[in-house]
Structures are given as C-alpha cells and as structure tokens.
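DM from R.C. (forwarded with permission)

"hey, sorry to bug you on a friday — could you get me a structure for this? deadline for the figure draft is monday and I only need the backbone to look sensible"
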Amino acid sequence: MGPGDTSTRRLLPVLVGSLLIAGGAVQLVPLTIDYVALRAYAAVFLLPGVGFMLVLAGSVIAAFVFTPVWAWATFTFGAFLWFLSWSGPLFYYFVPVLPVWWAVAGTAACLVSVVVSVAYRKVTSAVISGILALGSIASVWLTFLSVEIISPDYIYAPFATGALIAGVICVASPCRAPALVRDAA
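My reply, with the result:
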C-alpha cells in the first residue's frame, strides 16, 4: 500500500468518475418529480445546482486525466461556467448576463479542452471533454430552441447525460493517477 501501488493510483480516477456520474444523475432527478403536485419547487431548482457542484468537484480533481494543464483548466472552467449558468438567476441583478450566455461560454471552454487534448494526443481527456462538450452543445441548443428566459426542466438533460457518460469512461479508462515520488535526500 505504498504511494506507487496501483490500487492507490486507481482510486482517483474512480473518484472523479463517480463524482461525474453522481452529478449527472442528480441533475436528472428533477425530471422525475411532479413538482406542481408535490409543491417541490425548491427541490427541482436546487438539485441541478447540486449536480453542477458535483461535476465541478470532479473536474477540479481530474488534473491527472488531463495531462496538458490547459486542457484540465479549460475543462474545469467550463464546468464552473455551467454552474454559473444554473445560478445566474440568483445574481442576475448584479451581473446582467443571461444564463444562456454562461452556458455558451462553458460549452466553448469544453470545446477548447477537446482541441488542446487532441493537439497533445491525449485520447482519454479528449473523449471525456468531448462527450461533455456534446452534452453542453445539446443543452445550449435546447435552450435557444425554447426561447424562454427561465429554462424548461429538460434543458440540463443532455449535459447531465454527457456527465454520466464521461464519468463511466473515466472509471473504465486505464488512466492512473501519477505515482508519488519520494525525495531520495
């Protein structure tokens, strides 16, 4: 059970994948709630936020998957911008940017992560960020099609599905966290 042990190094990819899967699943839960009959408006509003926080937490600790630092930074920034997209109505009075534009910026950040990963030939990070980027594109597309200020319930479903698939790929991929190197001195 030393620092170079493969089971220890495998724990981090499983943790990141689990956070992405949990975040996507939590975002899909509000689609199963009849919030009008149950008066569960707060739960339906807050659950996607919890999901975005889980995806953001997974992306923050996913630095080992995204070996180019720029790929990891843009992937994490994209997850953060999606969180801002969800929370946009809470601070819209102070920062008058429509939530959809935060989502567009988050999608662009995920796409930049794909480009950087492909440029460095990092297949796992390109696939993970690419799947989340596809979910982001579909969510933004649905938002623009809905033509509403307040997004319908199903807007986050493609993003959540992308997070679920990206999490499964992260868990199933052969990537390992880097081994800790002990100082010989």
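R.C.: lifesaver. DSSP finds seven helices and no strands in the chain.
me: no worries. Helices lie at 6-28, 35-38, 41-60, 69-91, 99-119, 123-146, 157-172.
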